[in-house]
Each structure stands twice: as C-alpha cells, then as structure tokens.
Q: What sequence folds into this?
C-alpha cells in the first residue's frame, strides 16, 4: 500500500463522491481565490518596486550620493579632495561644482538653481549628459557663457536653443549709480529632460569657470560623489570626513531625500499587508471546504478509527488535502503573477494602443509608463506567506476530524 497512509487517503479525498460535487466546486473556488490573491500580490509589489526604481533613477540620477563642501564659501584645494575621495573603493566618480540661486529672464522671468559644472567630470556623478533633448553638455566651455537648462524651465522662460537668457545673481555690487545686482547674458546651448519637476523646471547648468566669474568665487562650492552603493552613503561620508579633516564637510543624499524613500518603503509594506489579508481570506476558504469534507466523510473516519488509525493520523489526512489545494492555488498564482509582472509594461502599452486610452498621461504624471520590477525574494516571501496561511486554515477542520467518535458517526449507518 502507498505510504505514508495519510498522504494516500488525503489525495483520494481530493476527489469528491459523485453524489456531492459541491465540495469539489468549493475546492475549485478556494484554489482560484488563492491564485488570484497571490497573482495580485506579486503584480502590485512588482509595480511598486518599479515606481521605486524609477524614482530613485530619476532623483538620484541628478542628486549626488555624497557631497564634500568647504567650511568657507569655496572648497580649498579641490583636486586634492577629489584625489582623496577617489581613493575610497566605494567612490565611482567625483566632480566639482558651483551652486547658487539666480533669476533667469527670457521672454518671461523665473527663478532657478544655477549649477556650474565641468563637462568632463559631470557624467561621472549624474546622468544629465544622457538626458539631453537638444544640444550637448560639451557646449559648456570656459568663457563661452553658454547655458543648459531643463525643458520645463525653457518653456517657462519662452526660450530655445540659440536664444539668450539673462542671469541675475542675487548678489549686489556698488556702482556710480548705486547698488546693482550682478547680471550676465547667457546663450542657451542645450536643453535636458530628466522627468522630475525639481530639475526640469528649476535647474540651469553653466561651465564652472563662468559660474565662478558670475559669483566672484575662487573655487567650487563643493564636490559631488557617486558611489557603488547609494545606501553606503552615510558610512562613506563619515569615513571621508575623518580622512579629509576639519576643513571639509561631507553630507549624503539621505539627509535631503530619506523621508521620501522611507514613505515609499512604508507604502509598499502597507500594501503588502493589505493584499496579504486578501490572500488570507482566500486561504481560509479552505476552512469551509474541509469542514464540509469532514462532515461528508464521517463514516469513513469512523471506519479508519476502528481499524486502528490514530487521531493524529486522521488529522494529518485532512491536512494533506488542505495543503494540496493551497499548493495548487499558490502555484497557479505564482505562475500567473510572475508572467504578468514580467510582461505588464508591454501589456499596458498594448491596451493603450488597442483601445485608445491613456492610463498615465505624460502631461500629468512624471512617470508616464507603468513600470514593473520583479524581485524573486518578494516572490519567495509571498509564496511562503500564502503557504503558512493555508497550513493554519487546515488546522481546525483536521482537529475536528480527529475528534470524531466512531460510535456516534456509525450510529445511523
């Protein structure tokens, strides 16, 4: 005979008698419910991972992972600071910069953050060179007084490539006619678009030497660093701060953006808990299925007890069926969920093309495509969680079957 006996009988009980197809129907509903819950959980978590990745790429693609700044207005001996920072194994690139606020005037006026950069260094720490819509970052040469601005800022100012924009620095100088702000006319040589309002609508780039002349500085205001792992920023910043000495200050990206990403992580955890409850409800449909099965098999249970099968063995028999139903549902859910998560962007694009609808309008949302980033560790966690729910769902019906008294069950047989 097939061993262990509990598994053999449990597998046989998955097929209900001809006179009672309702139990088979309830089992099918339980399988489908678990499958739908697991599919939804994998898909939603993958979409949230996708949004998290997109936001990190867009925000941290422009933000330095760590920043070295001087105690004075500018950084002293910045080549030495870059050399010391580059010696750290976690630092992938370093670039000096000048950063100040200014008012820009084209056809219209808008405030902006002006950043002076070195085109040869900037690609090491940001992706602005890969986000150019028009022109090139290399057009920023010393003394050319060229300007590269965000696309939305260009629209606000009413300027394009080849037009001129006046930069008004909020610093004043004495003149025979009184106190005047520093003003310089720049030529717009390029336009970039990174997909974030903070940068597309409020950032203007110029050559670092031009920025130093405009603001009368004798060096960069800081050095931006890119790391191999942005979550090491705090430890790397502390290490560099110790190495560079008291003449420098080192800060990391978490000081300005940590709350934003913590909110995303919290939202993902809350969504996981909500969808886990849906999976739990579907899993606990097994309770009704197994309770009905126990009632239907009262005579069989009594006979097995009289033949010497222990209560623990009876309990194991019915747990086998519940686990089998749950496993089938989880397997279907994982298969559908992984397939959907991997193909969701293409599926959404097909739906938009076929039916002429737009889910995320580029005019409203910064991320106009539904992203999906499948993490296999999330799939494993979801699978284990759903399986644990199924195990708990089988305990009460199996315990009730084990308490069946043979005499009472066979009284009317």
A:
């Amino acid at each position: 005979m097939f061993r262990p006996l509990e598994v053999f009988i449990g597998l046989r009980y998955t097929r209900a008698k001809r006179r009672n197809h309702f139990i088979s129907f309830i089992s099918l509903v339980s399988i489908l419910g678990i499958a739908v819950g697991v599919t939804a959980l994998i898909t939603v978590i993958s979409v949230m991972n996708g949004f998290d990745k997109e936001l990190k790429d867009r925000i941290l693609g422009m933000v330095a992972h760590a920043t070295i700044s001087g105690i004075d207005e500018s950084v002293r001996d910045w080549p030495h600071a870059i050399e010391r920072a580059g010696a750290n194994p976690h630092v992938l690139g370093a670039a000096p910069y000048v950063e100040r606020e200014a008012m820009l005037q084209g056809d219209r006026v808008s405030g902006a953050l002006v950043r002076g950069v070195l085109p040869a260094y900037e690609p090491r720490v940001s992706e602005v060179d890969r986000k150019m819509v028009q022109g090139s970052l290399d057009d920023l040469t010393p003394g050319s007084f060229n300007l590269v601005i965000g696309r939305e800022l260009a629209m606000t100012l009413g300027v394009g490539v080849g037009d001129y924009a006046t930069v008004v620095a909020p610093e004043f100088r004495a003149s025979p006619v009184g106190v005047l702000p520093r003003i310089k006319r720049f030529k717009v040589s390029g336009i970039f678009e990174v997909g974030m309002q903070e940068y597309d609508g409020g950032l203007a780039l110029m050559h670092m030497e031009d920025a130093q002349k405009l603001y009368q500085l004798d060096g960069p205001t800081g050095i931006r660093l890119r790391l191999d792992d942005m979550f090491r920023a705090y430890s790397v910043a502390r290490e560099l701060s110790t190495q560079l000495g008291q003449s420098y200050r080192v800060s990391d990206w978490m000081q300005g953006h940590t709350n934003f990403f913590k909110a995303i992580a919290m939202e993902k955890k809350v969504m996981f808990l909500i969808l886990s409850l849906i999976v739990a409800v579907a899993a606990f449909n097994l309770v009704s299925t197994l309770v009905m099965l126990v009632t239907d098999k009262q005579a069989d249970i009594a006979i097995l007890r009289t033949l010497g099968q222990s209560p623990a063995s009876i309990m194991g028999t019915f747990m086998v069926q519940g686990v089998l139903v749950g496993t089938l549902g989880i397997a279907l859910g994982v298969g559908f969920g992984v397939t959907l998560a991997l193909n969701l962007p293409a599926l959404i694009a097909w739906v938009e093309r076929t039916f002429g609808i737009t889910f995320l309008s580029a005019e409203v949302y910064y991320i106009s495509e539904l992203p999906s980033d499948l993490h296999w560790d999330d799939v494993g966690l979801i699978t284990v969680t759903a399986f644990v729910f199924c195990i708990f769902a089988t305990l009460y019906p199996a315990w009730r079957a084990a308490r069946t008294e043979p005499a009472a069950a066979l009284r009317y047989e």
